[in-house]
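Moderator note: this is an archived Q&A kept for reference. The question asked for a predicted structure of one protein chain; the sequence and the answer are reproduced below.
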Amino acid sequence: MHRRIIAPGALAAAVLLLAIPASAAPHSPGAPGIGDPYYPAYGNGGYDVSHYDLRLKYQPATDELEGTATLVARTTQGLSSFNLDFLLDVGEVRVNGAKASFTTSGEHELEITPKTPLAKGAPVTVVVRYRGVPSSKQAYGFTSWHRTPDGGVAANEPEAAAWWFPGNDHPLDKATYDVSVLVPDGTQAISNGTLQSTSSRLGWTRWNWRSNKPQATYLATLAVGKFDITTGTTESGIPVLNAYSKDLGDHAGAARASIERTGEIADWLAGYFGPYPYNALGGYVPNTTTGYALETQTRPYYSPRQFANGSNVSLVVHEIAHQWYGDDVSLKRWKDIWINEGFARYAQWLWSEHEGEGTAQELADHVYASHPADDSFWTVKPGDPGPENQFDAAVYDRGALAVQALRNEIGDEAFFAILKGWPRKYAHGNASVADFRRYAEELSGKPLVALFDTWLFQASKPTSAAARTASVAKAGGTVSQPRSWKKIAATNGVHEHGEHGNGEHGNGEHVR
């Protein structure tokens, strides 16, 4: 804590300044980044979005996207100008109905100057009219828009939104969404949430989707192509909509055999994590060449390649687990990725127990024993891995090992109470690793700083003594590989994903 000595004259000036009405406070530009050390230019400062209304028209043959985005927001400071994260070509911007001037800067910044400065705490409506070819746009040397033989797909982490709509592109600013997409008849447009309606006219069909719970921008998805769509309902009453590209070829059967179990898996996970947090569920498999899956909210994205060796139900478990850990409760900063990936991977371990293919304890013992102390696996700190290692295997496997160490330290009663209580406490909000540690301490009544430091924040293998204390290392003998291990490992594979998580550059299979 820094203490500042204020002279009497300065104190009087400060009191006078506080007496000035907020409406008279000076206006200044909003920051071009939200303040995340991993990605300093991601997100923006000065406002908070509550709703996105996206009205789009997409031509699959040419990959041309035309749109009008309406953002409903509120300022958090007096603004003379502000930024949106966006890459397509903008034709017009209006702020509160009046035309605004705009320019571009950096890799993906749209700088907007309203006709009249905006007061702090004021409601604001921003309308952006735009068009462009998403696959032709790059930021930081890559694209998050995946061209397919019959259309295109927006799905990537930590960024994808800027390729198809303007926004405040960081998980700290979650919002609800209406996504309306006009596509040629015979083509489908898939997005998050519930399908509100479809209508056709003059050779075009409009698909209207709604996400009625707060959603991070990277979790918003759009897929246009020719899909087979299946619908159903879980035992708990949640509607399920799955979509499969019509040209998946030999992967089609395995993809369906996996993703059609989504409802069953969500109901099973609810026994561990509490009620499913949304009013829609499903998944989709477009004909992309990526090697990863992504927990796009209510409707995860799956790459066809992940079903090359048959069904992969463990992968579905991972992505549906994210609906609680990562989507419902989102990270505050990208360094908090362990809360997303460690617990989604641990859900796979619980599924292994459920299937009788190895307990979570056996999987933890295997992870600990299979990586010697000089393995680079231990140099990645799951609690703060750095942007270059954000999706490294260690974040998943060492991350789940840390979860098992926590379970052993506090006991099953407290542990499973935490698994259910965490999504309830921070529902539809954001939280950090430090928040999770404090919550675990509160529910368990145990100090956990040392345990978290050992298993999440040290760039070295926990000692045998530390492992024995956490009931992870077996006393002597060889640790056998659980039967589920190959299935679990197949969901992350090499973890090469190019710059900023662009799976197009990878040659392995990934979960996120």
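Archived answer notes: Residues 2 and 423 are 35 Å apart (CA to CA).
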